[in-house]
Every structure is written in C-alpha cells, then in structure tokens.
Amino acid sequence: MADGPVFDIFIIGGGVNGCGIARDAVGRGLSVFLAEASDLASGTSSGSTKLIHGGLRYLEYYEFRLVREALVEREVIWRNAPHIVRPMRFVLPHHRGLRPAWLLRLGLFLYDHIGGRRLLPATKTLDMRRDPAGKPLKASYSRAFEYSDCRVDDARLVVLNARDAADRGAAIATRTRALAARREGGHWSVEVEDARSGARRTVRAKMLVNAAGPWIDHVLAAALGRRDARNVRLVQGSHIVVRKKFDDPRAYFFQNADGRIVFAIPYEDDFTLIGTTDRDFDGDPRDAAITDAETDYLCAAASEYFSDPVRREDVVWTYAAVRPLYDDGASKAQEATRDYVLKVEGGAGEPPLLNVFGGKITTYRRLAEHAVEKIEAALGRAAGRGWTADAPLPGGDFAPDGVEAEVARLRARHAFLAAGHARRLVRLYGTRAAVLLEDARSLADLGRCFGADLYEAEVRYLMAQEWAATADDVLWRRTKLGLRVCAEEAAALDAFMQAA
C-alpha cells in the first residue's frame, strides 16, 4: 500500500551527489524523497582526501573541462561554506627524474589561469634551502612549487546539503533501504525498509534518481532487476593518519616513481593525513579496508621525501573508501576518468530513471545542477534557474575569511568556552553553533561530557538536526573526535544515543 503523496523525484543514495541533487531540486520547487541505506556520507563521500581541488594531475590526461570546472568550484564552495572549507597552500617538491620542471610550471600556469581564480593566491617557486617548507624534507629537495587549493570536511559537506534540502522541504530518510522499484501507473513505486524497525512501505515518485555511488550497479540489478549493470569501475583509495609530521601549515604534494601522487596534509591540528592509493576493488564497498600493502606503500612514498621516515607504528588511524569511476576502459586505476556521466532512461509514457555515474567532491554542485536540468526536462517542466552558486550552506552565512571573527563572537556570548572548543564548533557548525549552545552559561549547562570536548548538547543537536544515530556517526562523520576519545568513551556515547 502506497503511503503519502507522489513525489517528483525519489533519490537513492545519501552521498554528496544524492544530497546535492536533493538540495538543488527542492530549491527549484520539486518535491523530493531521498533514501539512504545507512548514514549520510557513510561510503565514498567520507573517504576522500578532504580536498576541494582542481586536480592538477588530471591535466596529464587532458581532462581540461573537468579541471576548469573544478577550479571554478573551489571558490564557490569556499564562499558558501567557509566554516568547513579553508584555503590551503600546497608544496610540490621538484623530483629529478620524474616530471620535468617545465612541465610542472606549464601545468601550474594553466591551473592559475583557466579557473577564474580570484581569492586564492597564485603559484610561486620556492627555494627549499631557505623556505620553512624545506625543513621536514630531505636535503636533496632544493626546489619546489607552491600553489593553492582548498581542504574540506567532506562528510559535513554532505550533511549540510541534506540539512538545507530538508529545511526547504525535502524528505530525508536515513537508514532506509530501497528494496525494489517498479514502474506502475505512470510513476515509480519504490518499496523501502527501515533498517532499525524492519517496517516496510511504498513511496511513489514521478522519476527515480540512482545516485548510489559504488552501489549504483547493485541498485540496477537488485532493485530494478537489471542484468546489464556494468557501468562503474570500483577503485579503492586508502589513507593513513599519523601524529603531526611537520609544523608548517602548508600541505605537500609528493610525486612517486610509479606515476602516482600522494598528499601529506595537516589534519585536525595534531595529525598528518597521508593518501591516497588507487587499486581496483572487487566486492561489497562496505567491506573496503586498507591493506598491509597500501599501508606500506603510503609509508614508503612519504618516507621518500620526509627526512624522518613514516613508519607503520606511527599510524593512529586509517580509512578506505571505494570510488565509483565511470568505466571508460582506462588501463590503470589512476588513469580512469574522475568526470561524471548522467544518463536518463525511459521510453515515451514511462516514468524516467536518471543514473549518476562517477563524479568527485569538488564538482558535486555542478553535477547536481546538470542533473536537475535533466530531471526537469524529463518531467516536462520549464527549466528553473540555478541558485546554489550564491546560497550559503547552513552555518556558512559569513565571509570566507571570517572564521576567527565568528569564534570571537561565539566566545563573547559563551565566555566559558575555551578557544579551541569554540573554534572547533565554528569549524563544524558555523553560525549554527549558537543554536547548538542555546542559552548555555557554563560547561555544566552543556550536560554530560563524553570525552575530549564533546558534550551532551552537541550530541543531542546532531541527533535532532543531522540524523546522527550511532557513536560512529558522531565521532567519525559529524566530527573527527574519534581521534581523541578512547574506546570506553565511545561505547558510553553509543549507549547514551541508543537510550535517548
């Protein structure tokens, strides 16, 4: 039995693409239902290298359109989410015997000039014998190039898109699996199951959007009964996190002899993030985990540059995710396109299906714009105007360089907050940190502490406003406090959340 109204679109997948499409679509007047089988950003979208970047190395594969679009998007996303995006300078040491200096200069010249850069500073050359960036590196690296990109809290980017979509009227259903979808009476009937209660119901929509990321072919096969689902190439990317390897605020871009690149990025104040790998993956993407070989590879790649080697015992956390790259027949995983492909299916009189293949964090907003244009055309609606380029994400309604001013404003209202605590809240929630804290006048007003500076008020906010249901949701996706709390504290948090 079908419940409720017929939605304009039903979206399968609560990653950055699904949530980005939901936000854009509902903002143009479409009614939206989004189902995510697990937690928001629980797959590929929380397993990135945390960068909003043009993709310097994609120039080698002549992906000029993708690079230009991504370069433009850096400042758009930074402007609309200054709390979770921050500009970062990257140091690319010149390695004799690999890419020649002239080629790097040419690539960086294009990087500076084809993307409409306005706020980010331009490329420059460094003398590593004098620049502080040379201090943690081996003495043989005497020259480097420094350029601009941005870093992002990827999982929060997803959640904030979902929050804004919900605020505008979209139905966001997490832990809700789409079991089957069939065309019926001019619309889609989608049977969904609540993973917590086991309750099932049918949701109807005029159009189905398959944005399931690495599970996109699985959805086509399992939910739609398709047997021709061979569209994506699954590539695992793994990362390691070690104690802070250097004090410089800049990140490093390391070239490897095998043609791959590895980043070493300042992470969560006290750590360094090193990644990523590229290896073909076969299996259930939920089972993705770093291998011993990948750990050794990342340690060796970083140790080729750092004077103090990175050892396996230095690793404090790892994560891995599977990227669903559109299968373009590339011979190597690192050569497969990072561009996105949107395909609409459905004959005359049939409710249409949109499949979303590939994509990357940086270009999610443009992907969503293009997807909604196809959705409107398929539904026979007049094309709406794109609006997300100038619309701040929740909490992002302040200037790109205004984080410290927001921290000062928050501390002025809540004088009991330590500077680090206030900065963490602003970096996660922006202006909505004030909503989280409400009228608290002391730490005691924030309730129980679950370790580090995580208090009950924040947990309750995340449960009520951001669909958090487990300790992992809070500690590893909504925040990164999993790096700072012990197993007993995490267990106590989970018990509290299950009982709440």
Q: What is the secondary structure topology, with strand pairs?
A:
Blueprint: E1 2-12, H1 16-27, E2 32-35, E3 51-52, H2 64-80, E4 85-93, H3 101-113, E5 124-127, E6 143-152, H4 154-167, E7 171-173, E8 176-184, E9 187-194, E10 200-210, H5 216-222, E11 232-243, E12 251-255, E13 261-267, E14 271-275, E15 279-280, H6 292-303, E16 315-326, E17 340-345, E18 353-358, H7 364-379, H8 403-413, H9 419-429, H10 433-437, H11 456-465, H12 471-478, H13 487-499
Parallel strand pairs: 1-2, 1-10, 2-7, 4-12, 10-18
Antiparallel strand pairs: 3-6, 4-6, 5-6, 8-9, 9-10, 11-14, 11-15, 11-16, 12-13, 13-14, 17-18
Q: Can you give a write-up of this model?
A:
With 500 residues, the protein is of the alpha+beta class. It is built from 13 helices and 18 strands. The strands form 2 sheets. Strands 3, 4, 5, 6, 11, 12, 13, 14, 15 and 16 form a 10-stranded mixed beta sheet that branches. Strands 1, 2, 7, 8, 9, 10, 17 and 18 form an 8-stranded mixed beta sheet that branches. Strand 12 (251-255) and strand 13 (261-267) form a beta hairpin. The radius of gyration is 23 Å and the shape is globular. The two termini are 31 Å apart. The model has no long low-confidence stretch (mean pLDDT 93).
